[in-house]
Design a protein that fits this description.
The protein is mainly β and about 180 residues long. It has two helices and eight strands.
Length: about 180
């Protein structure tokens, strides 16, 4: 079966930046709905017409992927507003930012803690790959018809190219 819109593809890949540094390796196949919300449009376009066993290589510029890095999405917040167990790399839903945080911080964003200082915390609402041109070497492992539920959801699960909040024990706003 060839890849068309509204089918499910099982992919493996190597994701790197333009300098060749590997950012992610997906060794075990993961399923994605083509024509849904799992994959970037540039990836879906490159996959069209290919079948199992095909290897597709492409470079995606920031504007086709996660946008340019936006310094306006960096926020310096008082350290005292956050729990002691806060760590670099954790994510916080914007809707759950503590009272006293910058009112301009978008409440519909997902923030990553990028730095922790004695008096301040740096929160970044940019996608971790914002501003980076990425190279993908994708291998199509399988192609199948999407189920009615997958078509309605537009997803075969959680796509790699989306960041979604995860539940963490003790405090559902920290990830």
């Amino acid at each position: 079966m060839e890849i068309t819109e509204h089918c499910v593809v099982a992919l493996t890949w190597v994701l790197s930046d333009t300098l060749g540094e590997q950012l992610d390796v997906l060794d075990e196949p993961v399923e994605f709905v083509v024509g849904g919300k799992d994959l970037l449009p540039a990836i879906e376009e490159a996959l069209q017409g290919h079948g199992p066993g095909a290897v597709v290589q492409l470079q995606i510029e920031p504007e086709q992927a996660f946008g340019d890095f936006n310094e306006q999405l960096l926020f310096l917040e008082p350290r005292a507003l956050f729990p002691a167990e806060l760590e670099v790399g954790l994510t916080i839903e914007g809707s759950a930012l503590p009272a006293g945080c910058n009112p301009d911080a978008p409440r519909d964003a997902l923030f990553t803690v990028t730095d922790i200082y004695p008096e301040h915390v740096v929160l970044d609402a940019n996608h971790p790959l914002a501003g980076i041109a990425i190279r993908l070497r994708i291998r199509v492992e399988d192609v199948r018809e999407a189920s009615t539920q997958e078509r309605e959801r537009g997803s075969a699960g959680t796509g790699f190219f989306r960041i979604e909040p995860l539940d963490a024990p003790g405090d559902p706003t920290l990830h």
